[in-house]
Amino acid sequence: MTISEFKTACETISQEYKTKIAQAESLAAVEELRVAALGRKGALTELLKGLKDFSIEDKKTAGPLGNALKAAFFAAKEINDELNKTELDLTLPGYPVAKGHRHPLSVAQDRMTEILAHLGFEWAEGPWVEDEKHNFDLLNIPLHHPARDAQDTFFVDSKMPLVLRTHTSNVQSRYMEKHKPPLRIMAPGRVFRNDSLDATHSPVFHQIEGLYVDKNVSMADLKSDLTAFMKGLFGNKAEIRFRPSFFPFTEPSVEVDVKCVFCQGKGCNVCKGSGWIEMLGAGVSQRAEKLRY
Ligand SMILES: [Zn+2]
After folding, report:
1. Does residue 271 form part of some domain?
2. pLDDT higher at 254 or 247
3. How far is ligand 1, taken at its centre, from the CA of residue 241, in Å?
4. Distance (Å) from CA 277 to ligand 1 centroid
5. pTM reported for the whole predicted model
6. Domain that holds residue 239
7. What are the tens digits of pLDDT across the range 265-278?
């Protein structure tokens, strides 16, 4: 073998293995290629055996060439070993980033206000800390009414009698002071009562109420709006019933139940065996009269 043939052979082996390594699909395949080149009967090993037949002069050129090629294969092995050791797989997807989610109360409130908006109700708001006039007096809840009892209400220690609003109805009193009928409003928000915390009571909870005042508005409108609202909330198949009831500020009054979605009316723990879940109270408001509308 001449020195120029040796150079060509080195070049051929180098190109061949570079291509094969680039196409290898696993670390094991790369290792196989390294053995094929540098193993006892490897292509490069065989080539380097011919070095001994060269003249001293030719060995000075051929030696470094062969060693550089050998070193390149060993470098590839070191990289492979390192990759094996760290078990680093660059093809794995990254860790998912926690995105969080909206609070269930916000989700429920948005759903309800969206349905009421479709029914023509306008969003209205009022203060959380309210005077007795707007929280009680204007709503047909006079001074002697039990709803004002200290056991039901958080009174705020101040010069004028203030309370944390016990219902969203303070929005009705404030809205009707400033707006003349016809009016159709919804008042969603936080309310406060001096209740001990248990499965069905909380000192802070959320209400949503609607008020519709216009000529020729009757119980029929109340019933159709509430039916549309409940079906919007629980789906078209939801079964709803209206029961006569009593509230100090509506006459006549109704309570609205939905057939238990957990047991489909058969009776379970959630509906206390009745098959129905009480959802809301409603009626023809006497407050508008109190406010002389
Ligand atoms: Zn049930």
Report:
1. yes
2. 254
3. 15
4. 8
5. 0.63
6. 218-285
7. 999 999 999 999 99
